[in-house]
Amino acid sequence: MADYVHGFDPEEQLRLQAQGEILAPMVYREVDFSNCKHLLEVGSGVGAQTRILLERFPQLQITCVDSSQVQLAQARINLASFGDRVRFVEQDGCSLSLSERFDSAFVCWTLEHVSSPIQLLVRLKEHLQPGARVYVTEVFNSSLYTSPEFPHFRHYFDLMSSFQRKIGGNPDVGIALGNLLTEAGFSTCSTRFDGFYLDRRSGEKRKIFTAYWKELLKSAAPALLASGDCSLQALKLMEEDLEKIGNDQNAIFFYQFVQAKATL
Ligand SMILES: C[S@@+](CC[C@H](N)C(=O)[O-])C[C@H]1O[C@@H](n2cnc3c(N)ncnc32)[C@H](O)[C@@H]1O
Fold first, then answer.
1. 110 Cα: distance to centroid of ligand 1 (angstroms)
2. Among 22, 247, 242, 172, residue whose Cα is nearest residue 180
3. Domain boundaries, the chain
4. pLDDT of residue 155
5. pLDDT band at 1; cut points 50, 70, 90
6. Angle 23-27-29 (CA atoms, 0-180°, nearest 5)?
7. Chain centroid to CA 157: how far?
8. Is the pLDDT of residue 52 over 80?
């Protein structure tokens, strides 16, 4: 997969693991697979979410699907201690073809990279048993708000979102999850918003979250620089703006992602 905004280098693979832990209180706030046994995770990356799922739901067996052999190789290493509770399949989620049917599924930060999210969800649905429970978690980049304006941060963020669209993804796919899951044929679907809301009440979270955002945005830098969409100067100024947000207790930072829960 040549067109993938975050790339697959070891630094990015470590970032994904750290991201899983930092965002877990938000992502897993309402996730419940306690009555499920066989879970299908599409776009499992290096296994950051898989690890959390395996730990939180000790009865689960998970099949990890990713289109990147590099990610799967690292996931095998990261999840080796879970033995045969986890297995790995290299496939494109949009043309998923497995012999089993699962009672649950999890897709996180993956649909945003796919040119046809509906195709992936339809293929996912084909691999589920009646009544299966699914959680899909996705970005909604248009929700970003800061006060005051941090123009360099905003500029770089917009470059990243535009680049993602240019290579076939959708940085606002989160807001369409209700439509997409309904169109794919899921019988019930509820959505909730979660994410970041920093203001003067945020305390230590401010530093932790702005550091996280800096790493997230930097992860797109190699692709943005190589494509000519971004300059080194724009990268540096974005980092400086995030430092400012991290140091200004009164600065407001707001960003929401969307999590859909659906059943078949
Ligand atoms: C941002 S990472 C998220 C990984 C993991 N879900 C997590 O939260 O740590 C997105 C992953 O989706 C995978 N991916 C992108 N398009 C895919 C597709 N069409 N089918 C399967 N995996 C895909 C990428 O290889 C990458 O590992």
1. 5
2. 172
3. 10-263
4. 97
5. very low
6. 115
7. 16
8. yes
Q: Kindly report the protein residue whose alpha carbon is nearest to atom 26 of ligand 1.
A: 45
Here the tokens at position 249 are 């207790």
pLDDT at residue 2 greater than cutoff 70? no
pLDDT in tens, 66-125: 999 999 999 999 999 999 999 999 999 999 999 999 999 999 999 999 999 999 999 999
CATH of 10-263, one of 3.40.50.150, 3.40.50.720, 1.10.10.10, 3.40.50.300: 3.40.50.150
96 Cβ partners below 8 Å, 6+ apart?
42, 65, 120, 123, 124, 126, 127
12 lines ligand 1 (CB under 6 A): no
Read off the pLDDT of residues 136-189 as tens digits, 9 standing for 90 and up. Answer: 999 999 999 999 999 999 999 999 999 999 999 999 999 999 999 999 999 999
Distance 137 CA to ligand 1 centre (A): 12
Distance, in Å, from the CA atom of 90 to the CA atom of 62, rounded to the nearest integer, reads 14
Does 6 contact ligand 1 (Cβ within 6 A)?
yes
Q: How far apart are CA 177 and CA 159, in angstroms?
A: 23
Instruction: Tell the residue nearest (CA) to atom 1 of ligand 1.
Output: 109
| CA 235 – CA 165 distance, rounded (Å) | 19
